[in-house]
Amino acid sequence: MKFTYKVSPTMKTRQSTQQIMFLLTLGLMAVVLFSSTFYFVEYGIDYVIHLWSLLAVAVLVAVGSEVVWAYLLKKDVLAYLKTSFPWVTAIILVLMVPISTPLYPIAIGTLFAIVVAKLLFGGFGHNVFNLAGVGRTVMLFSFGASIVPDLITSATPISSIANIGWIITDPALVEPFLAQFGGITGLLLGWYPGGLGETSALLIMIIGAFLAIKNVLDWRIPVFYIGTLFALASIIAVVQGIGVWYPLYHIFAGGAMFAAVFMLTDPVTNPTSASGRIIFAIGAAIITILIRVQGNYPGGVVFSILIMNMLSPMIDRFTDGWQLALSKKYVISMVSVFVVGAILMGVVGLNMKAIVIAEPEPEVPDITLSTPISLDQSATAVKGVVLSSTTEGDFEVVLVEIRGYSVLEGGYDDALPNKIEVKINKTTLKVDSVKVVEIKDTNNIGTKVDNPKFLDQFKDVDETSSVDAVSGATVTSLSVVRAVFAALEHVKGGE
Amino acid sequence: MAHEVISNVKKVERKVTMSFWIGSMQKHIEGFKELTTYNDIVNIAAPKEVYIPLINGVSTAFEVLVKEGDRVFVNTKVAVRNDRFVVPLFSPVSGVVKGIKKMMHSSLKQVDHIVIENDELYESTNSIPRFDLENATKEEVIEFVKDSGIVGMGGAGFPTYFKYLTPATLHYVLINAVECEPYITSDYRMMENYTQDLITGFIALKKMANAQEVHIAIKKSKKTLIKYIQEAIKPYPFASIKEVDDVYPMGWERTLVYAIYKKRYDRIPCEVNVIVNNATTAIALGQAINHQQGPTHKMVTVSGNGIKNPANVFVPVGTPASHIISQLGGYTGDQITCVAGGPMMGKTMTNDAWVITPYTNAITITQTVKIDDMTCLRCGTCNDHCPAGLLPVRINNAEQAKNVDLIAQLHAELCIECGLCTYVCPSKLEVTEGVRKAKRALALKKGV
Questions:
Q1: Does B190 share its domain with B287?
Q2: Where are the alpha helices (DSSP H) in A156-298?
């Protein structure tokens, strides 16, 4: 008989870190499946293949680099992997990038996360920063252009609202804006392209609840993070007088919900005390919303995680002591952090202005003017036909049809004349302005006449004047001059 | 499975209502109580020799009242603790004193034991007088309790009379029948079989405390026992049952008093007008009053997957564990872990030659399983569950860094070593042991 000695307690819970990581992987894979379904239904199998290629590359790089590391350190490779869980980082990282991401940035992001942020810090349990967060940041800074959404999977909720300064004050614009993503319900369901696993707030919430019940993650972090985000966005909404859609947008759009459940809850990088984790979550929410509405980057979630990761040891130190005696300190500090955030948000909210995006001015090609054409000589061969003439006070507006290049020289079968509108001062019998209604001449050549540089010459001309033709479009220029002459003749004759 | 989810949801709710910034401070843990709740109690006769350990708490200051060659009887007072507490020890058998022998005690210390050779005649003497509880004064009851050698039978062995010398006003006597340690069912079986002694016991305790009410704390999950005791205490309107959650360590005074009265205290429950006694302590007192019998026999739960026939045994104090184990069919494997007490707070023993004391409530024998530990993932589960409100992982870190100032700031000395931090640790680390080391480092520094 052998009595084995082991310090008490001799009984242990069945739950193990391996089990926790297994359930977490399961939760992440549920998100991957949702995403695969979405891209399959909306964009086809090629997109799903790309998604799984991203996943395969990331997992291979993560596991591969740890295998090499364990081998170099002469450790049992399998045993090392069993207590290191590199795939979790890889899956989280993939779920944060858009479908348009090529394979090599994800490989480099994963490699950096695993080797630099994890292994060099001492391996599992010793990293300071959230690994996937580091990988994502590296990708954002190194491959910014290649991992922005492509043309098909363009505007994400975050980039759309970031473009207009994170606020819409005009109630009429809210609905069409939200309609892009199927309204608030659409944002909740997540049936739109974005970060691969970040879109469906509802699915993430369900998985989060499951993992919290299974003691895989601490419910405090998602609840306080999302709660604070909602409360702070509500302050902006109240200050700006906008609806409840605004705070909902903040919690459903972008990576907030995903980070709340899968990244901020990473036990290695958050504080160890319950009170510390609450302070951590509130702080992350404040930084997230500040970067969103005040920073240059569209999203603030990843940066808020990394910043709070840095503060984790400090928060741990702050909550040290006998918890039962420190309740008051804990509650006061949680409330204070929140109040500071709320005041900041009030000030920021007051100063937020909606950016009105004006329709871009159509580009005006530069033209050069050449040979002058005198009006009276222009009309010797070809004459304009007056289609209509209306009186507008002192002015007569005459619409003239005139054969241009395509009819006269183009030789096309279905050539049509140009239409020019001329506005003439009835008292002085001089042209006030000329407007091109329709140019049927060669595109990009004949159409050059529709340019203020050419048309402005007609101001105050009469039959004796002359204007310069557009170089390269002399025949079309001539047609305009002829139309003006015809209009002048018409007004004069009409008197 | 479904049940597990429901109970977990309930736990989450409780966390919210209790203290969301500290944590649940408790946890439901698997009890394995069905192993010994329903089967027969095994009466084990005393072996050829019994050994009475001369230790109480940490004190070994005993005056031995017998000498080698003396004939003793059942209930003969053989020794008495003679420092600031008075605790008499009684012989469980009749026979001849063979002398004093140093042996390992269930606290792992080498301690003097009085060796008595059992003549198997079980002749008895009346060293405990007949006691008229009805007409006794508070002081007389206290004196009786002192002379009967009643100590905390739940495992602590603290002299019961001493607790009642408090000048505090006491409203409630709280009978602790929670029995939150896994495997142990001896309190349950004692209450079932010695109900009348339990009632006498709590009447005496109420008298000593000058209290108005007696509350009996039983886990909600023990439905049969609750029903049975409810029926038995019907004639005593001052007594009632307080049902508590099936969580660990509900049997700890602080956790229990908070669960029932929603009050926290600084040092002892008397501060909030409550005095707590274990159910078996009350029964031992009842037996002394009703049958003039000292604490010479003990119900002990012998359970775990390391013993062939798990059962509750009724044995004389001073019986070696090996004797009991062989009576129950022996061990089930070659490598076992033998614990004096329950698996959470009991002491792991290095052999089975130690003896049963009046305050031994269990022997837990499990087959040794090697569990691999891994790096702490800083999940803070230990912090959330510490019933004392400490931060075990932080204490461990401070201990590893040999930062005694930080250990002091973290109040490691308040740890009761309930073992919950080690139990919940998903990385399978010996968190409790780390806190023990920290406590020793702190005590060393304070000593200097």
A1: yes
A2: 157-163, 171-179, 183-189, 201-213, 220-240, 245-252, 256-258, 274-294
Instruction: Judge whether B132 lies within some domain.
Output: no
B109/B252 same-domain check: no
Burial of A347 by CB count in 10 Å (0-12 exposed, 13-18 middle, 19+ buried)? exposed
Residues of chain B with Cβ-Cβ distance to A282 below 8 Å are none
Q: Tell me which chain A residues have a C-beta less than 8 angstroms from the C-beta of B12.
A: 212-213, 219
- Identify residue A2 by its one-letter amino acid code: K
- Alpha-carbon distance A361 to B162, whole Å? 94
Total-model pTM: 0.82
**Are residues B22 and B56 located together in one domain of the fold?**
no
Please write the tens of the pLDDT for every residue from A232-250.
999 999 998 888 999 999 9
* Chain A residues within an 8 Å CB radius of B394: 272-273, 316, 320
pLDDT of residue A182: 85
pLDDT band at B1 (very low <50, low <70, confident <90, very high): very low
Do B317 and B432 sit in the same domain of this protein? Answer: no
Whether residue A462 contacts residue A430, with contact meaning beta carbons closer than 8 Å, is answered with yes
Q: Model confidence over A400-438: pLDDT tens digits?
A: 888 888 788 776 777 788 889 898 888 888 888 888 888
- What's the CATH number where B286 sits? 3.40.50.11540
If asked whether residues B73 and B177 sit together in one domain, one would say no
Whether the Cβ atoms of residue B129 and residue B292 lie closer than 8 Å to each other: yes
Residue with tokens 């504080």: A271
| Predicted pLDDT of residue A155 | 66
Residue % of chain B over a pLDDT of 90: 83
Give the torsion through C-alpha atoms of A477, A481, A482, A483, to 10 deg: 100
Nearby residues of B448 by Cβ (< 8 Å), 6 or more positions away: none
ipTM, two decimals = 0.87
Which positions in chain A touch B326 (Cβ < 8 Å)?
Answer: none
Is A33 in contact with A47 (CB distance < 8 Å)?
no
Q: Does B438 touch chain A (CB under 8 A)?
A: no
Cα dist from B260 to B30, B168, B220, B344, whole Å: 22, 19, 13, 23
Rounded-to-integer distance, Cα A184 and Cα A243, Å: 12
Across the interface, whether the CB atoms of A274 and B345 are under 8 A apart is answered: no
Residue at B300: amino acid letter: V
Residue A359 binned pLDDT confidence (cut-offs 50, 70, 90): low
Take residue A318 and report the two structure tokens written for it.
Answer: 């702050």
Q: Is residue B343 part of a domain?
A: yes
Q: Is the pLDDT of residue B18 over 60?
A: no
Terminal-residue alpha carbon distance, chain A: 130
Chain length of chain A: 495
Q: Residue B10: which pLDDT band, with cuts at 50, 70 and 90?
A: very low
State the total domains in chain B.
3
CB–CB of A213 and B379 under 8 A?
A: no
The gap from C-alpha A346 to its chain's centroid, in whole angstroms, comes to: 25
| Chain A touched by B392 (CB under 8 Å) | no
Which domain range does residue B69 map to? 42-127+294-367
Q: Compare CB distances from A13 to B393, B424, B432 and report the shortest one's residue.
A: B424
pLDDT in tens, B130-152: 899 889 999 999 999 999 999 99
| Closest chain A C-alpha to B62 CA, distance in angstroms | 29
What single DSSP character describes residue B307? B
**Which residue does chain B place closest to A212, by CA atoms?**
B12
Chain B contact for A171, CB < 8 A?
Answer: no
Same domain, B228 and B333: no
How far is the CA of A23 from the CAs of A20, A216, B55, B305, in angstroms? Answer: 5, 7, 50, 29
Residue A150's pLDDT is what? Answer: 52
